[in-house]
Amino acid sequence: MAVGVIDWRMLLVFGWPALSWALVGFAYLWPGAGIFEKRGARLTWHRKLLLLPHMVLLYATWHAVRALSREPAFARLGEDILIGRRLLPGEFPAVRTVVDLAAELDEHIPAGTTYLSCPILDGAPLPPDVLRQVAKRISAAPAPVYIHCAQGHGRTAMVASAVLLERGVATSVDAALTLVREARPAARPNRAQVQALLDAWAQVR
């Protein structure tokens, strides 16, 4: 009996975290952001339970970065677009639409705002056709619009650049990325995300 108890404890201590992180790692191959099962603004409770070891580390890291960072929570990108990190309830500026790109975090929705959810894994691109559709949807949403991911860097830069291209504010991917960096210097997509932008707007031309 003692051996069985020890085995279950070892399984809980080591097996649960291993499974949690293995599933998140597997998500970058398949099934993508769906691994978090975000429904509207919230992850499902059973998926949170399954991924609890990962979620505890994730939220602890997010709060630590938020507390220690000197970067402003958000920045204005033009007259009716704001970009930044995930905000706490009391941090929201006056916006009419919130665009949530963080697949892995619950969202706070200010009363009276339109909520658009586009869950993306951290560091992942969107397929070019989906990126264009998302940009069109955001462009048609009530303004001002707040676009954010976890820290307001990679995913935010990719989608905000797509919106600038969709609206014709920027006439090239480089120009769109420059505008985003000028507003929020740390907002820089990775190579895959830049390639998604290039592929999306090469196709529409």
TrEMBL record:
Membrane-crossing residue ranges in chain numbering: 12-30
Domain of life: Bacteria
GO molecular function, one term: protein tyrosine phosphatase activity
Ranges of residues in domain Tyrosine specific protein phosphatases: 128-195
Pfam families: Y_phosphatase (PF00102)
SUPFAM superfamilies assigned: (Phosphotyrosine protein) phosphatases II
Keywords: Membrane, Transmembrane, Transmembrane helix
Protein name stated in the entry: Dual specificity protein phosphatase family protein
Organism of this sequence: Polyangium jinanense
